[in-house]
Design brief:
The chain is an all-alpha fold and about 80 residues long. It has 3 helices and no strands. It is elongated and about 60 Å long. This is Substance-P receptor-like. Keywords: G-protein coupled receptor, Membrane, Receptor, Signal, Transducer, Transmembrane, Transmembrane helix.
């Protein structure tokens, strides 16, 4: 599980890190190329996607997390039905 989480983290954050390094270390006099903005936008979306993928990986690979999440959902449904 740890290896999967590490690979997911690296895949989701590496494009953002590379694009930020490119932006910071390019020549200050030149404009950013036309392809940079879509790449940067996609990199930020990958960062957000990591926050979505992380609980899915935990749920798929960790029995204790699955039981706790099921228990939480059961209690949430009961709470919504009461109020």
């Amino acid at each position: 599980m740890l290896f999967t989480l590490l690979i997911t983290f690296m895949v989701c954050t590496l494009p953002f890190q590379v694009s930020t390094i490119y932006e910071n270390y390019k020549d200050r006099q030149t404009k950013l190329p036309s392809w940079y903005q879509p790449v940067y936008f996609s990199a930020i979306n990958l960062m957000y996607a990591h926050s979505t993928i992380n609980p899915i990986v935990y749920g798929a690979m960790n029995q204790t997390f699955r039981k706790g999440f099921k228990h939480l959902m059961d209690r949430s449904v009961i709470f919504l039905l009461v109020f």
